UniProtKB/TrEMBL annotation:
Keywords recorded for this protein, A-Z: Signal
Protein's UniProt keywords contain Signal: yes
Classification via Gene3D superfamilies: PCu(A)C copper chaperone
Upper taxonomic lineage: Bacteria, Pseudomonadati, Pseudomonadota, Alphaproteobacteria, Sphingomonadales
Keyword Protein transport set for record: no
Name this polypeptide is given: Copper chaperone PCu(A)C
InterPro entries associated with the record: LpqE-like, Lxx211020-like, PCuAC_sf
Domain of life: Bacteria
Length: 152
C-alpha cells in the first residue's frame, strides 16, 4: 500500500507540474504581466508605460505597443552618463527565450504621446504588445498618478 501511494503521489505531482507549466496555454509564447502607466504631471506631456515580459520558447523582439488612449507610442531607454539622465528612442526590445525583461522607471519603457485627458489615476487602459515572431498580447494597464509608485 505504501508503494502504491508513493507512485500515486509522484504521478499526481508530475500532473500538477505539467498543468502549472501549461499556464501560458502550452503555446510557448511570450507573456506579459503587471502593466501600468504613470500619468503625466503636466497635461499634454507624455505618460510612461511599464510592463514585465516573460520569454517563451524562442527569443522574440517587442516591436511596438498600441494604446488606444494615446495617439502615438514610442519605445525608449533611459541612461545615465556622467550623472546626467537621458532618454533615447529604440526600435525594439529583445526578449530572450525563457528570460524576463522589465520595462520600468529609469530603464526601458514606452512613452505615450497625446494621451486621452479623460484618463484618471485608479482606472485602466488597454495595451497591445506587438512582437516580431509571436502573437500580439492584449492586457489592461493600471493608471497611476504622476509621481506614483508601481501598483502592487
Amino acid at each position: 500500500m505504501t508503494m502504491r501511494c508513493g507512485i500515486w503521489c509522484r504521478l499526481s505531482a508530475l500532473a500538477a507540474a505539467a498543468l502549472l507549466a501549461g499556464c501560458d496555454g502550452g503555446s510557448g509564447q511570450p507573456r506579459a504581466e503587471g502593466a501600468w502607466v504613470r500619468l503625466p504631471a503636466v497635461a499634454g506631456r507624455p505618460a510612461a508605460a511599464y510592463v514585465t515580459l516573460r520569454g517563451g520558447r524562442e527569443a522574440v523582439k517587442l516591436k511596438t505597443m498600441q494604446v488606444p488612449a494615446a495617439r502615438r507610442v514610442e519605445l525608449h531607454r533611459s541612461m545615465s552618463d556622467g550623472g546626467m539622465m537621458s532618454m533615447t528612442p529604440i526600435d525594439r526590445i529583445d526578449v530572450p527565450a525563457g528570460g524576463t525583461v522589465s520595462l520600468e522607471p529609469g530603464g526601458m519603457h514606452a512613452m505615450l504621446f497625446d494621451l486621452d485627458p479623460a484618463l484618471k489615476a485608479g482606472g485602466t487602459t488597454r495595451m497591445t504588445l506587438m512582437f516580431d515572431r509571436a502573437p500580439a498580447i492584449e492586457l489592461e494597464a493600471t493608471l497611476v498618478a504622476p509621481g506614483g509608485a508601481k501598483p502592487e
